[in-house]
Structures are given as C-alpha cells and as structure tokens.
Design a protein that fits this description.
Blueprint: H1 4-19, E1 24-28, H2 30-42, E2 50-54, E3 58-62, E4 65-77, H3 84-109, E5 119-123, E6 127-130, E7 133-137, E8 143-155
Parallel strand pairs: 1-2
Antiparallel strand pairs: 2-4, 3-4, 4-8, 5-8, 6-7
Helix pairs in contact: 1-3
Length: about 170
C-alpha cells in the first residue's frame, strides 16, 4: 500500500537538507494541524517553516499506482504589521520560494511524472478575507504561506522496498 503521508514526510526531510534550513511536516485536517501546532508551540519545538498536507485528499488507485490530488501548505511566521513588499523580501524570497522550489523538485524524484501541474496561491497573511480585511486567521499564528492546490501526483509502489521510485 502506498502511504502518501510517509512519502511526503521523507520528501520534507530531504528538502530540509537541500534548502539548508529545517522544515517541519504535519498532515491532517486543518483543525488537527492547528491543534498540533499549538501543542508544539507550548513545548518550545520548532513549528515553522512548515509543510502541511491538508487532509482529506483524493486518491485514485490504478494498476500504475496511486494518483493523488494533493493540497499542501508551506508556511512561515510573520508579523501582522508587515506590508506586502516587506513580506516578499523577508519571508517569500528567503524562505517560502526556496522551500517551494526544493519541495517540488524532491516530489518529482519520487513520482513517475516529470511535471507537477498545480495551482499556487501566495497568501500575504493567511486568513478569511472580508471587505474589512482578514477577520479570522486560518492558523493561530500570523503566517505567510504558499498554498498548493490540485497537485496531481502519481506514486508508483516499488515492490522491492515498498516506497516509490528513486526513494
């Protein structure tokens, strides 16, 4: 059985080495991820930068493997007072963009596809938007994030070691 959560956990570990800073990994529903992050924060553990696999996600099981439609979040702490240009310089260029590029490269190594079509959204302060601004944060922390939607990935089971290709 192909376990996407296990594969992505290893991908994030490898991405941390390549990008040069530690990325933490969480998976689950948004509610569960928020609860886990709150617990980590109380224990003084590193929460960010974060790569999160948002559950549930669809998988189509075929003879070729498991085709998964993934929703990922790459997030880092920010200050609520920062403007978009400051966020771009302080969070996106040095942290989020490099983490995104390395993560995509590492995911490509464990799939049979050389392309990973997906939708990317840069969230300069992630929350629910209204005409008055953001009225509620998605996570309890102030974060800047890259949201990746509809990433269709085909994972193929390797019968030799129960992981996917190149892993």
């Amino acid at each position: 059985m192909i376990v996407v959560e296990d594969i992505l956990s290893e991908v994030v570990k490898k991405s941390s080495v390549v990008v040069g800073f530690e990325l933490s990994f969480q998976y689950g529903t948004l509610r569960e991820i928020v609860e886990n992050l709150n617990t980590l924060g109380k224990g003084g553990k590193v929460k960010y930068p974060l790569v999160a696999l948002i559950e549930p996600f669809k998988q189509r099981i075929t003879d070729d493997g498991a085709r998964s439609s993934l929703r990922l979040l790459i997030a880092t702490m920010t200050k609520k007072t920062l403007k978009a240009d400051e966020r771009l310089e302080q969070n996106y260029k040095p942290i989020l963009f490099p983490a995104y590029e390395v993560l995509i490269g590492e995911i490509k190594k464990v799939t049979i596809s050389s392309t990973l079509d997906h939708t990317l959204i840069n969230h300069f302060e992630m929350g629910r938007e209204s005409l008055q601004g953001y009225d509620k944060a998605i996570l309890d922390d102030h974060i800047d994030a890259i949201e990746i939607n509809d990433m269709n990935v085909l994972f193929r089971e390797n019968k030799c070691n129960n992981l996917t290709k190149n892993f």
